[in-house]
Amino acid sequence: MKKINIILFALGLIVLSSSCSDDFGDMNTKSDAVTNIEPRYFLNAMQQEVFANYQRNVNLYPDLYSQYWANTVSGFESGRYEYVDGWIGNQWQEFYTRNLQRSLAMDNMVGDDSNYTNAIAIKNIWMVYCWSRMTDTYGDIPYFGAGTGEAVPYTSQQEIYTDLFAKLDAAVNAITDGEEQYEYNEGYDLIYEGELSKWRKFGNSLRLRLAMRISNADPAKAEAEAKAAVNGPDGLMASNNDVAKVPMWSQGWYDYLHQMAWNWGNVRMSQTMSDYLYTQSKAGEDPRTPIWFTYNVEGNATSKEDFGADRYYGLRNGKNLINPDEVDNTATINLEGGYIDFVGDGSMDAMYCPVMFYSEVLFLQAEAAMRGWIPGDANSLYIAGVQASMDYVGVDADAASTYIDGLPTLSGANEASLKQLMVQKWVANFPNGVEAWADFRRTDYPDILLPEGGVSSSASVAADTWVKRIRYSSNAHQMDQASMPESLNSVEKDRMDIRVWWDTADTKTKTSGVMSSNF
């Protein structure tokens, strides 16, 4: 990432400040108040929103709900499903007053100019990703007409998904190789440097992700969209070179995992993560473990051998009172293990925030093949997904082969096979807590422990129940409650144990560790 991009990010915020404030009430401010700014400036800033305010928007919520990490701070109750508006409420506010406004500004400035067809198509693919994160977090949200100056009723998640599929189809097919097209280049497109083929592949792969997301809610639509994704122009991601991730500049200060897990020590590796890293293969320890994790001894990264431990141990999620000695004996992020997303490229990029791994795309194909929706052998694709993750993380080839040889084989289209697939997908998706939490809610795999300290007394989640969504922000209730779905239009009714549309089953219905709802 170039220094100019940081300046441009700041410039984007300054320009937008003339038409947007931090208050939710301004989410409907007309975006045509923005003066003419090149689209590349907006896309650059929109991509950086992935890790903006990361602690409050992601680490204290999806990262803990996915149980990649466990909270270490007594008094931080989000791991026990408590809503804190000053934390996760920012996601709602920032999306509608920043990301959506930039998107609409681009449409208003160049949306009718054929020389900007690719610029708008790429922006639209990115916005589908952003919209999917929003609706998967909250369920029904303001969608059609949002941000254009009028209060709008909340759109159902099913309708939103239908439109997101249509937008992806249109955007991927609109991208042209014509010479007169405006280009995102010279570091402005932080993900693919304006490479059109990679954007097509990402758009198709995102379509497959969303198709599998609705596999239980609308199987017929899911199958149709999965097939369309696989057959889209340029196909799906084809290697680790296609991974979608956003770099963080080495000279900047970023609220990301290096702060949460190492500098501040606010999270540690979870017990759930530790358990799965040591129980999946006959080979024993997952060879990704020491690359991802280490012990922190007086500020120094320390291997389990030097620490005197037989494995990398994690902290139980949802503790009410945190014992400092217990925290000291649990593993944390390894910033010296060689994993590129944690150590950067050795030059300008210090870390990378994941959007979509190639391994995830292989696991998505494996599940679609298991359901008979696309050609291919589910077991071969599942093994390929594990291998792709090993390669991306930087595992020695022999160690990866030994681990993979010790994994169970998928046999048939059934809950047990899906559970095995989803566990390996969950491990490979680390540290993408947003996606891991969505997968858990959709399939109810892997097995995730309830908070040890019980659900917070201030939470709107019933005891012995998993959190299923985030409630709407306090500003949304104060400013636009009349537009909300009737079943959620008060703080009392807006509960966090209410399932979103595509989450069709209750995790508590498992029998012998498996559901009966995915097939």
Task: Quickly describe the structure.
The protein contains 21 helices and 9 strands. By secondary structure, the chain is mainly alpha-helical.
Helix and strand arrangement:
Elements: H1 3-16, H2 39-48, H3 54-59, H4 62-65, E1 69-71, H5 89-110, H6 117-138, E2 141-142, E3 154-155, H7 157-174, H8 196-213, H9 219-230, E4 244-249, H10 257-263, E5 267-269, H11 271-277, H12 289-292, E6 293-297, E7 300-302, H13 304-307, H14 324-328, E8 332-333, H15 340-343, E9 349-356, H16 358-370, H17 378-393, H18 397-405, H19 415-428, H20 433-443, H21 474-480
Antiparallel strand pairs: 1-5, 2-3, 4-9, 6-7, 6-8
Shape: globular
Task: Please provide the count of β strands.
Answer: 9
The major sheet is characterized as:
3 strands, antiparallel
Number of helices: 21
Poorly predicted regions: 1-34
**What's the SSE pattern?**
HHHHEHHEEHHHEHEHHEEHHEHEHHHHHH
Rounded mean pLDDT is: 93
Share in β-strands: 5-15%
Indicate the percent of residues in helices.
40-55%
- Rounded to an integer in angstroms, the radius of gyration calculated over CA atoms is 22 Å
Structural class: mainly alpha
Strand order of the largest sheet: 7-6-8
End-to-end separation in angstroms reads 44 Å
